[in-house]
Amino acid sequence: MTETKQHIALIGAPLEEGSGRRGAAMGPTALRIAGIDTTLAELGHTVTDEGDLRPLPARDLANHPGANHLQVVAAFTRALDASVHDAARAGRFPLILGGDHALSMGSVSGMARYAAEVGRPLFVLWLDAHADFNSPATSPSGNMHGMPVAYFCGEAEFSPILDRNRPLVDPKRVYQIGIRSVDAREREEIAEHGVNVFDMRAIDETGMARILHDVIATIKAANGLLHVSLDVDFLDPEIAPGVGTTVPGGATFREAHLIMELLCDSGLVSSLDLVELNPFLDDRGKSARILVELTASLFGRRILDRPTRSA
């Protein structure tokens, strides 16, 4: 991605119903205010802002006692599945501005359809404090932002949100980095299905660079496409406080940038989610600015290019 200039499609997904609290719906606006479009354009990319999705609730679906706000989340899932798939087919890079992590039910499903059409396997890099491999049968809260990985892997087919015969992601092609909060039953599901999990202890012992190099090598060997899903709570809350699900001990500023720089060098990334930004909980836009800076690293900004900011 360092040499190739992209046509980036910004797709706003102001979804907050998956998280169980208000505020994440303001995430797309905060990212725009933080300058995500101009930052990417200054790096030489073409940026098209497609605006925010505003789907009506999916009234054709029955409510589910273990899936809160199912009709709203399902509507966003369907809209994102279509918009992300269409953007990828048109040769654009889908960059989803969230919104809570339930939106990945749609964004990853759309990329899985595209990957199947071009005959390449889809891999997912999940940068998050949480594994999000719950289903209504296992979730302690029923909040659907804890279910997207299980959903796009086909392990949470509790409602006809999308076609049951859609292309799915093999759980063994999901790489989760930064994990540090997993429910007991969820832990069993992850182990059973072979999800690749690198928790913070693994990062401390092995090192972020080694982990990323191994992941990248695996994807390259398979000629795969890579979807990256970045949750604000991947970062330590001292760095990025603007999220409703803080877990101490997250990734550092430099570790996060290293990931993005290595991914940029790899040229593998085909789509990106920025999720769980809650501006209401942020400190003067700090978390939004960091997400924009990390995105800039993914799209080619180097250390020597970084401007100095006044205190």
Keywords for this entry:
311 residues, alpha/beta, Arginase, Chain A, 8-stranded parallel beta sheet, globular
Textual characterization of the structure:
With 311 residues, this protein is of the alpha/beta class. It has one domain: Arginase, Chain A. Helices cover 36% and strands 16% of the residues. It is built from 10 helices and 8 strands. It has helices spanning 27-33, 36-42, 70-89, 104-118, 148-152, 184-193, 200-206, 208-221, 253-266, 286-298, and strands at residues 7-13, 46-52, 93-98, 122-127, 174-179, 196-199, 225-231, 269-275. Strand 5, helix 6 and strand 6 form a beta-alpha-beta unit. The mean pLDDT is 95.
Structure summarized in a few sentences:
With about 300 residues, the chain is an alpha/beta fold. The protein contains ten helices and eight strands.
Radius of gyration from the CA trace?
Answer: 18 Å
CATH class annotation: Alpha Beta
Major sheet strand order: 2-1-3-8-7-4-5-6
User: What is the number of domains?
Assistant: 1
The count of strands amounts to 8
Biggest sheet character: 8 strands, parallel
Low-confidence stretches: none
By CATH's scheme, which homologous superfamily applies? Ureohydrolase domain
CA-CA gap between termini: 31 Å
Number of helices in the DSSP assignment: 10
Amount of beta strand = 15-25%
Structural class: alpha/beta
Report the oligomer. single chain
Mean pLDDT: 95
* CATH architectural arrangement: 3-Layer(aba) Sandwich
CATH topology: Arginase, Chain A
Spell the H/E element sequence. EHHEHEHEHEHEHHEHEH
Assign a percent range to the helix content.
25-40%
* Molecular shape: globular
